[in-house]
Amino acid sequence: MLHTGHTGAIAEESDHAANRGLDWFNLCVANIQTGFGPFVAVYLVSQGWTQTAIGIALSIGTVTAMASQVPAGALVDALRSKAAVAAISVLAFTASALMFAIYPIPLFVYLAEILHGFSSCTLGPAVAAISLALVGRAAMGTRLGRNARYASIGNGVGAALMGACGSYVSERAVFFLTAAVTLPAVFALLPLRRIGAIAPATTSPTSGTTPAAIDAAPPGARRAAVMRVMLDRRLLIFSACAMLFTFANAPMLPLAASTLTVRVGHLASLLIGACIVLPQLIVALASPAVGRFADLRGRRPLLLLGFSMLPLRGLLFATLPSPTLVVLIQALDGVAAACFGIMVPLITSDVAGRSGHYTLSLGVVGFAIGIGATVSTTAAGWVADHFGSQIAFLGLAGVGLAATLLLLTLMPETRPPHLPGGVAASDDTGLDTVPARLLHIP
Amino acid sequence: MTSSADQKPSNSAVISILGKKVFGRDGEDMGRVVDVLADSDGHARAAVIDFGGFLGVGNRRVAVDWRSLQIDPSNADKPVILSLSREQVNAAPEFKESAHPEQAIVTDPSARAPAAPAHQQ
What we know:
The complex is a heterodimer. Chain A is an all-alpha fold. Chain A is about 75% helix and about 0% strand. The longest helix of chain B has 6 residues, at about 85-90. Chains A and B meet through helix 2, helix 6, helix 11 and helix 12 of A and strand 2 and helix 1 of B.
């Protein structure tokens, strides 16, 4: 139905190639992002940077990412080829990684942080838009489940690869490796290069306002349409929930990891590595089922499942269990991450997918998530310093509980009611061969 | 190799400290020097060492007494050796930017230090 101009067989084959390409792209991008995280501070220390200069560099990255969310989302909406946006964003990563590796002087590091911060904000929404254009609304959850699976494989492989590279070769080599991985990422986009062009075709013919119609509308009407999407009650409630989720979630791993470093000594690095990789493994295993369940049954049960992991995890961490248990508790993070990671682009696509402002709306949610992450690291660090990590974990559990209750009381189900239950629109996913009973998450 | 103090040129030789890896006496990686604390006389009192963690997650900072470091600029591989053990470093309080960072400085109780000339209140 998507490819009215093609014969069925050709469409199916190019569909298959496009889906494969998107899988590989997600894997490579997650791999690339591993090097740009907290590891930047480790690298700059090894280059003799002072603490003040490192703080400035990281703040520049954070501020850029926060300020770019909404404008980058609007920009991606306005550009026709989302695959081109994705390719350019990845090439910007190549440039940042090489600047880090070759010229770690303030000018280039600051530039690299800005470049990376902005292109991260264009890349995520572009991938979501490509996914929606590729499979349509009915199979969006399933496709996002695949995205999450391959991204978590990329994260896990990236952590192992970059971790080994950093400790056995050199910190600098991590960024050369990062730059190298951007090349297969761009190649993976090749089968997707025409996807952006068919995006308007996925708009349901009954919905009236296609992106083309909005483009043609007078500016006043366009502004009103943008406001209608951005001020959608469901989007605002979900943004608030997502902010609280991230607030409770972001500091938990670093906090647990530093208690490990205190108590375990030289094995700590290994255990922290396990704390990072185990959730990725869970996400890789669970997210296809999460995505299918969302398509067939709805979003709310999965949201509640994912959010309720937070108070549980906080409470368990607060009991200060043995180091092995810390790693096991991290499995709950995998469940939460699988649900949350898929629901953010999925619920946003429910609310704004057909409006022509999908990636702008993703920018709004991303901004809320960014605020949650930035504020909470400082707040949790302060509480841990003054009252101990136990109280900090309990506080985070409390915020997680608040997020879950907000979700429970205010957030409606957003799965479009007219979607067929149990039958997928895209036959590429094998969706209709899966009996409904297999889709329940244990 | 990193033997006695009477090596010929190293008396006047100096070395950049920030970002250098610190090794234990048995060659174990003890982290990196990220900061140096100095007192009002201009003497270095302590080195802040960042260690542990994985890809920047979960690492920890402690301030170790300057006298617990043996610095040998002529040693290209391991110029900075820490006389504290891994256990002593783990037991140390976390170093924080605060009004009194000197309270967090870890000294080596077993050290041969007959109160070095650097500091005595």
